[in-house]
Write a structure and sequence with these properties.
Length: 147
Amino acid sequence: MSEAGSEEVVELTYAVDDRQVSFTVDETLYPLDAIYGASYLFVDRCYVFLSRPADKQVGVRLKTREPADEAALDALAGEFANELLNQVLRHQVSESTAKIREYYMARAFFSTPVQASIDDLLAELDAEELEEDDLEIAVPWEEEGSG
């Protein structure tokens, strides 16, 4: 059990330049799938550039499409950091429920479902007694005296 105050706080440090914010993400904290997921969600808002500055590190550069002030770039970096956390949680849930999903998929694909053939369906329709039609739509093959 850890003592209060002994936990390491990880803060995303970033650099702000003209119309862009850049930072390095540690893959030991954020899986690559989470980094890709967060990056993908930002491609409609800004240009996203990924690089590999060192082993187990991903460089992320977000460049705005329009001119932006420092406050907007700070907000963009904060939103990206929050989305990284969201994607990490999604990744962890995905990993923890993988066996359940595999089981259900295997059961769906490899079980023998009861499927009625066309002949069975036609026989069932023939066996049904059709009630009187409230709309009084005449069906020619049921009219009496024809033929």
